[in-house]
Amino acid sequence: MTGIPAPPAVGDTALKPDTFGGQTVIVTGGGTGLGKAVASEFARLGANLVIASRKPEHLDAGRAALEALDADVLAVECDIREPESIATAFDAAAERFGLPTVLVNNAAANFPVPAEDMSPNAWRTVVDITLNGTFFCARDFGRRHLDAGSPASIINIGATYAWTGGPGFAHSAAAKAGVKNLTESLAVEWGPYGIQVNCLVPGLMPHEDMTTDIVSNLERTHDKDACQPAMRVGERQELGWAATFLASPYGRFISGHTLVVDGANWQRRSLTNPAVIPVREQMGRDPFTL
Ligand code: NAP
Questions:
Q1: Which domain holds residue 113?
Q2: Domain with 67 in it: what CATH number?
Q3: Cα 159 to chain center, whole Å?
Q4: Does a structural domain hold residue 255?
Q5: Which one is catalytic: 161, 169, 190, 241?
Q6: Is the alpha carbon torsion for 183, 188, 190, 193 positive or negative?
Q7: Model confidence over 103-159: pLDDT tens digits?
Q8: Does the annotation mark 161 as catalytic?
Q9: Is the sign of the CA dihedral 268, 274, 277, 282 positive or negative?
Q10: Among 3, 69, 157, 234, fewest CB within 10 Å belongs to which?
Q11: 156 lines ligand 1 (CB under 6 A)
Q12: Which pLDDT score is estimated for 107?
């Protein structure tokens, strides 16, 4: 079994090199991991990039990667939990480049924890960043385009446990379910004004910026390729290509859609299910006591 063939190399592209020439794309969390990979594909297609997140070291790394692709880059500090912080960042983007045409709501927070161990603060933080932050960014971006009467594209980054639930990730799974649902509401509300709203869901796409928590969770699976129907994990550029297609002129009639790029992993089922192992046991935690 060879699985689904490997994709073309990073740097290859199906769209014309100037597809986003003269346009500006905002990617929240665009300094790390998948956000950086998505931003890179827009950069290769001629876009100016605005990357927005909290930590200067992430912004510096993202700016360096995107400038190496000859993109014009604004890296701006922003906490997407705070509407004022978003407004300031988006003002700076508009001042530098004019109104951006694409918003990729990529920033999110996540860490594995059994639900019974999850503090109210942990729940609030993940929901606040992943769901509230996504809405606040979409709201600010959408209002600017409604006011200007200009078309635009919003891509929210989701996760497959929006449909299935995510044992060990109750906070993030619930928040991502909200993000998927929000995508559908906004697509209908803002379609008449020319704003497309889609959701893009990555499968397992390991990258060097993954948090220690997520990495140690993954390390419990010794052969990650063999655990995927595609017989391989995803490559970051595969997410970037999907994002650039959705925001391109060739994806204009796609709105309110959630596109999963995971080689069918989330539909995987066994004829008979393996024995259930409680999440806290999978995570090597001691039995729960109050
Ligand atoms: P990541 O490495 O954890 O990056 C998260 C990014 O979000 C960071 O750049 C971080 O930057 C930013 N961020 C976090 N909180 C923020 C806040 N309050 N305000 C502004 N920015 C904030 O994540 P990733 O693995 O690249 O994943 C990217 C997206 O794909 C996420 O939406 C994630 O849920 C989704 N996803 C990933 C996978 C995967 O296999 N990796 C699978 C399914 C879904 P700062 O720390 O500088 O703020």
A1: 24-263
A2: 3.40.50.720
A3: 8
A4: yes
A5: 161
A6: positive
A7: 999 999 999 999 999 999 999 999 999 999 999 999 999 999 999 999 999 999 999
A8: yes
A9: negative
A10: 3
A11: no
A12: 98
